[in-house]
Amino acid sequence: MTDYKNILLINFGGIGDEILFMPVIQSLRKTFPKSKITLCLEGRSKSFVNLTDLLDDYFCIDIKTKNKYTEMLKLYFKALTGKYDLVISSGSNPLISLLLFFTGIKERIGYKSFKYSKYLLTKEVELNKNQYASKMYFDLVKPVTNAEFELPVIKAEDEDKISNSVLIHPGVSKISVSKNIIKIFDATVWAELIKKLLGKGKKVYLAGGPDDEGCILKIRESLKDTDLTNFTDLFGQTKNIYDLVKLIKQSEVLICSDSAPMHIGVATGTKTIAVFGPTNEKLLLPESDKFIAITNNSECRPCLWNKRQTTCKELYCLNIDIEQIISQV
After folding, report:
1. Domains 6-141 and 165-328 are alike in CATH topology
2. CATH tag for 6-141 (out of 3.40.50.2000, 3.30.1310.10, 3.30.43.10, 3.90.1150.10)
């Protein structure tokens, strides 16, 4: 097996995508403990590097902006001058493969994505999207490591669990909403869920980031006549991603949408109940009794990404019976 001195990994996407990519980093670090591993990611996800101690370096390329060609040129010079002997890229953009070819990096691994990729990459990997996304990424390292697949793991200190606690993180990113990608039900449904959990004697915690403010305000309004003795509103108190990790680790159960907190729940081993509407839970949650997808029986779901790029107006798939969630808690 080749001993690589300097490895470059390229994985663009949000925080959730970076967490799903973790098994690639984990397996490389296990196989090549002395190698320098550098991750190229988007600026919006750079807080991810605080969740792992397996990286030696990172740099940001905002490939999805209006200045994408300038950013690609920046990536080219970073890759050219970095003295890498192995690069693994999860993207399927032909320009990335072409760019990496001209850097002269000896070994270049990526997905078989277009007609000429076999000439630009030293190793093509079949892209199998019909599996848990972490396993899909893990396929990229099989040519260079014998490590077995392991679930994503993020760096986090041990935390004592708060007895009988349920953490609710209701939101998704504003980027998704702005692109007409609706993946979660209305704030009034979250409020009803909170009321029922409180009625069951649970200690309920509510958290969210800046993108969730509108949803949180509606939830607060819906709860104003409710006995909130066992309810704690923590909105705005998670100042960074590590605060959120700590909060999730302290909770016995996390209830959320298909979002970054869901992937954090998986990566911390927290019992996670995730609400899925238009997206495919089989691709985004590992098979485990600990990680539970809540869906309905709409014949049209899942549709997002494989059938359409935005959600429909009807959103039948988000007509979720919250008793399903209660029973799993």
Report:
1. yes
2. 3.40.50.2000
Lowest mean pLDDT among 231-240, 274-283, 295-304: 295-304
Q: Are 128 and 113 in contact (CB under 8 A)?
A: no
Model confidence at 122, pLDDT cuts 50, 70, 90, reads: very high
pLDDT of residue 79: 95
Reference 215, options 192, 239, 193, 185; nearest CA is: 185
Q: Which string of DSSP letters, residue by residue, matches 264-324?
A: HHHHTT-EEEEE-SSS-HHHHS-S-TTEEEE----TT-S-BTTTBSS--SS-GGG---HHH
Q: pTM for the full model?
A: 0.92
| Collapsed DSSP state (helix, strand, coil) of residue 172 | coil
- Listed by start position, the domains of the chain span 6-141, 165-328
Cis peptide before 261 (omega within 30 of 0): no
DSSP structure string for 99-110: HHHHHT-SEEEE
Structure tokens at 151: 């679930």
Q: What is the pLDDT of residue 175?
A: 65
Q: Which residues pair with 111 in a beta bridge?
A: 125
User: Which residue is associated with the tokens 């993020």?
Assistant: 154
Tell me the CATH class for 165-328. Answer: alpha beta
Q: Are 258 and 280 in contact (CB under 8 A)?
A: no
Contacts of residues 229-235 at CB distance under 8 Å and 24 or more positions apart, as own/partner, are 229/198, 230/198, 230/201, 230/202, 230/203, 230/204, 231/194, 231/198, 231/204, 231/205, 231/206, 232/203, 232/204, 232/205, 232/206, 233/206, 234/205, 234/206, 234/207, 235/206, 235/207, 235/208
